[in-house]
Each structure stands twice: as C-alpha cells, then as structure tokens.
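Let's practice the habit of predicting before peeking. Look at the sequence and jot down your guess about where helices and strands might fall. Then scroll down.
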Amino acid sequence: MESKASADSSVLCRLINLDAAVSLHLYTFFHPILPFSLLKSLELSGDGRLFFPITLSILFINTAPTPATLLLLNLLIGSILDLLLIGLIKHLIQRPRPVYNKNMFLSFAVDHWSFPSGHSSRVSFIATFCSIYSVQIADLWIVKLSNLDAHTWILEYFALMVWLWAGITSISRVLLGRHFVLDVVAGALLGVLEGLLVFRVFNVENFSFWFR
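Done guessing? Here is the structure:
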C-alpha cells in the first residue's frame, strides 16, 4: 500500500514539475515578444471585477421579466457558481502561483493560489453559455437589427468569436506568468462544466419551478 501511494506521489510530482517547466518555457519564450499591454487587456476582459458590475448594471436597468433578463440572470447564476467553485478548489489545493508572477492585484485571499485558473473558468463558462444559448441571443439581436442576414451571422460566428476570445485569454494567463498550463486546462474544463450545469440544473426556469 505504501509503495503504491509513493508511486502515485512520484507520478504527481513529475507531472507538476513538467507542468512548471513547460509553463516557464512558454513564459520565457513569449514574454519578450508579446506586449504587456495586450496581455493585460486580455486579463481585464475576463476579470470578474469588470464582468459582475456590468451584468448587475444591465439587470438593474432592465428589471422586467424579458427573455434578455432571464439570459442575464442565468449568466449571473453561472458566474456566482464559478466564483464559489474556484474559491473552494483553490482553498483545498493551495498551489502557489509561479514565482515569476508580477504586478498582480489580488481581490480575494484565495487569489494567492494558482490552481485552477479563475479567468480560464470564467471565460470558458461564458463561451459555453453563448454556444448553448446562441439561438436565444440571436433572436434578441434580430429584434434590434431587424435583419435576417445578421441573425444568420450571429448564429454562425458569434459563439466562434467568443470561444476564440476565451481561448486566447486562457493562454494569456500562462504567457503573463499568472498560472501554469494545468491551471488553465483545469479552469477551462471547469468552465465548460459550469455552462452545462447552468443549462441543465442551475437556471432561473428550474429555480422558479422548484420554489413554486
């Protein structure tokens, strides 16, 4: 039993060391090439300190139970779920961030920890959400645009563009020195799972049925 536990620990250590080495190599290679302003802009675009106030402001302005409000409420529910899960996992794992991580503003105590990446989970959740609800989003936009071509364009390209943003933002976490590769991968997978959970379980429609 002890030898098996020791072997498992050895494999985990090798995986962590490989992850750290690959992450450092990527950071070292791209750091002189990519401008800090670009990476910082991507960081801000997926920051919860920007996302939550904007979502809450829109909900505050539009309080009527419209399809747009329901979508925003589901988006907010998923974002809160993401915040709770990321905080819990970071508290349990407590993996230190890369030693070369510099000039990072910490919103919460758990932000000291690296695994998993909260930015990656958040943007992946948003991308999954937009993919699942792409038809509803397009229907809302077509009311504003009154253009069938725009409706088709949104259905075909909107989710793809959001996924592209999510992927680039997630990669930037490693290139900025904020996270290791496995942090980002785990965060992205968690974000996809959160999107599916919101669609299937934790949404306004189900809550209204449960508490009826």
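How did you do? Residues 2-210 form one domain.
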